[in-house]
Write a structure and sequence with these properties.
The chain is built from 2 helices and 15 strands. The chain has 244 residues and is mainly beta. The protein folds into 2 domains: 35 residues; 173 residues, Sortase (Sortase, Chain: A). The protein has a 9-stranded mixed beta sheet with strand order 5-4-11-12-14-13-8-7-6, with no helix packed on it. A hairpin with a 4-residue loop joins strand 13 and strand 14. The longest helix has 26 residues.
Amino acid sequence: MKESFADGVRIHPSRRWWMLAAALLLIGTGCFVFGLHQNRHPLAGPVGADSAPKRPIHKTKVIPSEVVPLVAVRSTPVELQIPAIALTVSLSTLGLNPNGTVQVPTDIQQPGWYRLGPSPGQEGSAVILGHVDSYQGPAVFYKLRSLVAGDMVEVSLADGVTAQFKVTSVAMYLKTNFPDQAVYASKGFSALQLVTCSGVFDTQTGHYLSNIVVYTSLVALTPAPDAPANSVATQDLTDAVLHP
């Protein structure tokens, strides 16, 4: 058998085949190991919170509560209380003058309810008017202008029910621009407006040029002591709701 040379080194033919086989074995082993590295995957373990299957979310439908109208039956108001100005006073009743204007109380220390409108607690705008002062001094509604939103007003009715109102706003208007609709017209709920004079005093006419109006809305009805325990009148407006 002839000898062969590679790069000047003599290699026996049988050794050359053995080296070739070894080289092929090394190449094959390397490819196998490389393939394992290329396709390596982590071992299966506990499923993390982020990879857990998502459960369908069932949202609860919230149905708005329906407000039960808080309305009193018609009854003559007999007493007015305004704790913020330490006022407790009986009420008279008022109508219209022959010229169509609203009557004013004859007693400067007693306000009057406008009887041609709703009574306090009925749906619509009840109105109570009173004097601010006279030549004799301060009158029953002298401190009315000091009321602020949130102050309470209570009206006792002839049937024993007490209507509780909360002041929502206080406004002053020139008598030439008095908002009849805002004061006397229905707002779709139980309201009570308190009205007196204010502003500049006209010495020529002997009258004030403006009016103060206190706007309130009904928040609760307290029944008469002998009323049934389950009377709706015992409910406060904020709690008088129907739950589905």
